[in-house]
Design goal:
With 456 residues, the protein is of the alpha/beta class. Helices cover 39% and strands 15% of the residues. The protein contains 16 helices and 13 strands. The strands form 3 sheets. An 8-stranded parallel beta barrel has the order 1-2-3-4-5-7-10-11, surrounded by 4 helices. Strands 6-8-9 form a 3-stranded mixed beta sheet. It has a two-stranded antiparallel sheet with strand order 12-13. α9 crosses α13. The longest helix is centred in the middle third of the chain and has 25 residues. The chain is globular. The structure holds beta-D-glucopyranose (BGC). Beta-D-glucopyranose (BGC) binds next to loops.
């Protein structure tokens, strides 16, 4: 069963929900430019999105009504520091402080993510993640965050999904800034990013006004075994932390982005495979990257099946035709959550939050005015069952943040699909809690007892 103090929550990110205001004093970020380049679905933008920056009071009141007590959200770096460094935008600090106070009035515990992809445009012009100064820049931002919010908030995450920030943004170019850098450049960026993470952890702790907890939230599909045989499990684990992906997709990697942070070293297999592309990596760099952390955060949405082949090597196994998929076309694979938790715990041995999990669909309002998202309930019920299995087997899962509260701007996919527990009508900004929101309220209230896996 879920422990009594299990953290049930929802997650979001600044750019996806906040919207903008002509008087907000905000600096530009790489997504502002990207959306204007016409590469987002139907040329949509996040200029308004859920208009959360003007409607957060109603949104937190609704969260309370829906029994949500923990909220992982992100701050926008260039909203707070319009040029990325230097002058602080007082309006932004005030807005986020008001938001946090409003959360608290509604009984909601804040979990702050410092960086969820909207990199300051002014710093991008100076080379962005490729410029080693980013370590200083991000460190300065961490100091500002600690100084301004750590009296109100004790839980921090430095970076969300470095795999996507570097890979989708700079290797495949499908996300902002929409560039295709050379492979060695992307390795330099990833290395700088992890150093920036380390500097941020140091500064968050150094300037915090009380004792805080700090973590990191990477991602990746999970290799899970085709059967529960020891051989298949070992094969899946090998692939999960392995280096099977082709070079033009190298950033989809768990160990490369997590071993340095949690273990203080790059994985040997990767150092060998990537040898021709790597930047200089010093002992000092590794010390900076390897800061003590309070928890592993992992965003897990789906996985792929692996078995041990006749020759003892791992093999990819196709799923049966007709296997369930989400609106995005992602396979529905609750096993990914159980095995992801298990493999990460065996390797990193820290308390773990699932910092994101959920599904998109083409939700619609029915004739009765409600949104009946049965598929989402089925999905969450199975995935949460997998979390419970991991907990029952003694794995230190301390919380789960459902992605996401409000339907919102899904990056390059615009508003095509809906991930929320709450439907947003983008014309009127009306919110309608979906059936899944009421269902999740019961799950949280009953601490998981009503999940199907607990029914006779
Ligand atoms: C990201 C979110 C995104 C979600 C669904 C994660 O990769 O952190 O920003 O909306 O997945 O695609």
């Amino acid at each position: 069963m879920f422990p009594k103090d299990f953290v049930w929550g929802v997650a979001s990110s600044a750019y996806q929900v906040e919207g903008t205001d002509p008087d907000d004093g905000c600096g530009k970020n790489v997504w502002d430019e990207f959306v204007r380049s016409g590469r987002v679905y139907e040329q949509q933008t996040a200029d308004v999105s859920c208009d959360h920056m003007h409607r957060y009071k109603e949104d937190f009141a609704l969260m309370r009504l829906l029994g949500i007590k923990n909220y992982r959200f992100s701050l926008s770096w260039s909203r707070i520091l319009p040029a990325g460094t230097g002058k602080v935008n007082g309006k932004a600090v005030q807005m986020y402080r008001d938001m946090i106070l409003c959360m608290k009035e509604n009984g909601i515990r804040p979990f702050i993510t410092m960086f969820h992809w909207e990199f300051p445009y002014e710093l991008f012009k100076k080379g962005g993640w490729l410029n080693e100064d980013v370590v200083e820049w991000f460190g300065e931002y961490a100091k500002v965050v600690a100084e301004n919010f750590s009296d109100l908030c004790t839980d921090f995450i430095t970076i969300n999904e470095p795999q996507c920030a570097i890979g989708l943004g700079h290797l495949n170019g499908v996300h902002a800034p929409g560039m295709k850098y050379s492979i060695p450049e992307t390795f330099q960026m990833a290395h700088n990013l992890m150093k920036a993470h380390g500097q941020a952890v140091i500064n968050l702790r150094k300037y915090a006004k009380q004792k805080i907890r700090v973590g990191y939230a990477p991602t990746c599909g999970v290799a899970y075994p085709a059967t529960e045989s020891a051989d298949d499990i070992a094969a899946a684990k090998k692939v999960y932390f392995g280096f099977e992906n082709p070079m033009d997709n190298w950033t989809w990697n768990v160990a490369w982005f997590s071993d340095p942070v949690f273990l203080g070293e790059y994985p040997k297999e990767g150092l060998e495979k990537f040898a021709d592309y790597l930047p200089e990596i010093t002992e000092e760099d590794m010390q900076l990257i390897h800061q003590p952390l309070d928890f592993v955060g992992q965003n897990i949405y789906n996985g792929y099946m692996i078995r041990c082949g006749a020759d003892g090597d791992p093999e990819y196994v196709d799923r049966a035709p007709g296997t369930a998929k989400t609106g995005t076309g992602w396979p529905v694979t609750p096993e990914a959550l159980y095995y992801g938790i298990r493999f990460l715990t065996e390797r990193y041995r820290l308390p773990l939050y699932i910092t994101e999990n959920g599904m998109s669909d083409l939700d619609n309002i029915s004739a009765d005015g409600q949104v009946h998202d049965r598929e989402r309930i089925t999905f969450l019920d199975a995935y949460l069952g997998a979390v419970q299995r991991a907990i029952n087997e003694g794995m230190p899962v301390i919380g789960y943040f459902l992605w996401t509260f409000l339907d919102n701007f899904e990056w390059a996919e615009g508003y095509k699909e809906r991930f929320g527990l709450v439907y947003v009508d983008y014309t009127t900004q009306r919110r309608i809690a979906k059936d899944s929101a009421y269902w999740y309220r019961e799950v949280m209230r009953m601490n998981g007892e009503n999940l199907s896996c607990n029914q006779p």
